[in-house]
Amino acid sequence: MITAVIRSNRDAEALAATLSVLIPAVAQGVIGHAVVIDEADDAAIERLADETGASYVRAKNGEAWSSGVAQARGDWVILLEAGDLPEPQWTPSIERHLLTMAMRPALMPLRGMAAALREWGAVSLRSRHVRAGLLAPKTQILSGRLARAPRRLTVRRERAEL
Question: How far is it, in rounded angstroms, from Cα 67 to Cα 60?
């Protein structure tokens, strides 16, 4: 089971867009749980998380990913920012990765060459720190550093401009 961990970024509208994209993945059984991370203690964000059945986590600055991932129920997590919209048919790509690359993390890059290259360089060439777009075992994310460079998925995500 995969848990979607989503940083709200103080934007309820963008968070709603991301959560709506996850609904088909929940229906297919790919996503089993969602955690919404809020660094601003926003009542609208908390209400939206509650209405969608997601767990709500209030995090301090700098602890967002670890606070959210600690609440994940699954062994794998996918990290998203509010407004991230995976391409249609993203779930088969994730399922295939989990079947073929047992413990290797993966990256669902942002759409657009410059953004995708920036993300790829940040997680594969430099620090391997966690960031949005990653699909990885919960234990690796909690450590704050990926054990291996992620495999780049064929599907991308884009940011909703609301």
Answer: 9
